[in-house]
Write a structure and sequence with these properties.
With 288 residues, the chain is of the alpha/beta class. The chain has 10 helices and 9 strands. Helices cover 36% and strands 16% of the residues. Strand 6, helix 6 and strand 7 form a beta-alpha-beta unit. The protein is globular, with a radius of gyration of 20 Å.
């Protein structure tokens, strides 16, 4: 569903971590002078999936777990657009897991923000793929998206932020969007976004987060080193945040560049009969 209405007031609970993401995306895009007409925000299903309703931009409410497929399609249709997809941990790491994995390999120049609150907040607090053991009877260990992202050898931008630190989040999102706009490929940012109603983790996460840039040996260009550092922090009961992977290659590695080259994309293609007549006649001749 494409949204053409004016933005409405957020419906989130007061104190929801999603407000931090909303503010950071607004600030980052304003700082980068991204015009509303060139910005598409794809929302998933869940509390965070309504984020596109709170921007005066082109917005799409995607199908459950399918926001990445739609975001990639938008980017391929018109590579000039700045495309951001935003959804929750249930949307992205459960029903959307297949698209999540392949997004790194496809490497389209879009930004995917996962607002992780470790619960299904919209449907009243059930355990999600990232929930801790014991939460609402959960007996499964939590899924670690950052470790999965780092395990896929592709020139992606990978980071994690915390809604309790909006200044850093804004800087990370701005870097990710610049990465996309340069055509360098896929950017993934997981934000720790507490659900104050069903899983209020603000205090706990403030005590556990550690900026990976402060760790000995930090090198976001070395995937193996970052995987080890993040795994060590997780095993020690801490939560690594910051930029986890920053490719040194500045080439246009995005899927849209590989498929389309310098072509404008189908959305801007000239389909007038006069200009396409030779191609149509050639096609018809081949059918006769």
């Amino acid at each position: 569903m494409v949204s053409s209405a004016k933005p409405v007031h957020p419906i989130w609970c007061p104190g929801c971590g999603d407000f931090g993401v909303l503010a950071a995306v607004k600030k980052a895009t304003l700082d980068l002078k991204v015009t509303p007409s060139d910005f598409v925000l794809v929302g998933g299903i869940g509390c965070s999936g309504s984020i596109h309703n709170f921007f005066d931009v082109n917005g799409i409410h995607a199908l459950h777990g399918r926001l990445l497929a739609q975001a990639v399609g938008i980017k391929l249709a018109n590579p000039a657009l700045t495309v951001v997809a935003a959804g929750g941990d249930g949307d992205g790491y459960a029903i959307g897991m297949g698209h999540f994995i392949h997004a790194f390999k496809k490497n389209a120049s879009i930004l995917y923000i996962v607002l992780n609150n470790e619960t299904y907040g919209l449907t009243k607090g059930q355990a999600s793929p990232t929930s801790q053991i014991g939460f609402e009877g959960n007996i499964e260990p939590p899924f670690h998206a950052i470790l999965t992202a780092l395990s896929i050898p592709a020139p992606n931008f990978i980071a994690r932020t915390f809604s309790g630190d909006p200044k850093t989040m804004t800087a990370v999102l701005a870097e990710a969007i610049r990465f996309n706009r340069d055509g360098r490929g896929f950017a993934f940012v997981e934000d720790l976004s507490p659900c104050v109603t069903y899983n209020d983790t603000y205090k706990l996460w403030r005590e556990k987060v550690v900026d990976v840039a402060t760790l000995p040996g930090y090198d976001p260009t070395d995937r193996k080193t970052m995987f080890r550092l993040c795994l060590e922090q997780i095993e020690a009961g801490r939560i690594p945040v910051g930029v986890m992977h920053r490719p040194t290659d500045s080439a246009r590695n995005g899927l849209e560049a590989k498929l389309l080259g310098d072509q404008p994309g189908p959305a801007a293609a000239d389909i007038r009969l006069e200009t396409q007549r030779p191609a149509y006649e050639k096609l018809l001749a081949g059918l006769s």
